[in-house]
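Appendix B, Record 12. Input sequence as logged:
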Amino acid sequence: MEQRRFGNTELLSSAIGFGTWEMSVRQYGHIDAADAGRAVQSAIDHGVTLFDTSETYGPFTSEALLGRALGTRRKDVVIVTKVGFTFRDDPDYPGFMKTHERDSSARNIIERAEGCLRRLRTDYIDLLLIHFHDHRTPQEETIAGLRTLQEAGKIRHYGVSNYTAPMLAACQQHGQLATNQVGYHLFDRRAEKAVLPYCRAEGIGFMAYGTLAFGLLSGAFTTETCFVDWDWRSRGDAFGLPLFQREHFLKALRVVDKLKELAGDHGKSAAQLAIAWLLGRPGVTVALIGMRNEKELRENVAAADWRLSAEDYAAIDRIFAEEGVPTYLDAEQFI
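Logged structural output:
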């Protein structure tokens, strides 16, 4: 698989990254842990070298599952994880913790990083990100904490997630970010207004999450699809966009049906079309995709080498216009 460099760093990874939010067990519908473990091993066999997780996924369960699944192959991959929250007991699930509030203070991120290392069964993290800016801690303090971890050999590189262009600029005054991880897919192009251009100009890598629009572009949803109440999509909101609210959801399904037809003309699936679209966007380093089993893995990896033509891009845009579905190209990034 194609290897891409993170901005101005020497860090390389596969163009497709294995996203593990779906391995959080309690946030994203049912998952078979054994299947997920096999998918991790198979992903490496198919050339995937980057695995993205966070202590909030579960919380903690995704990191623990990934650490066990990697086993002796940890040295062959790039591990990305995220910190920046505090936690408290979850009264609805005795014995579990839940995220409490954002905290990207140096003290907290250094302390949280130790737990990440333990759960991932490793003595270093390739890329540690601040999950969300907490709007209270100065960027200078946050970067100082990350640099302390780097100097101690606990992390190789550091970056952020869900940061706006002004937030990135404030960070760059105190250190060089390796990447910004932001939602970016066919139904959400907000990053194109300011965030992605800033990253390109400043030599910052760009990790896109939500590549398949949180399942919409998988082609598996129908008008009868319902989400269980503990699945975050049941709320209707997707990072500030109404993607799963009923009216918007039904319109999105019509778009997906047409995308299936377009992809089918190439002998591909809608999911593969979405992946190829994203990997062809200037400035994108990694497209993160959740892969819970080997079937999903094989389909997703097969899209890595597909290059869309100018006619394909134009056809995609026409489909959205015909159905009156916005892509929020001119909207500010939601944080």
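Residues 3-214+269-309 form a domain with the TIM Barrel fold (CATH 3.20.20.100).
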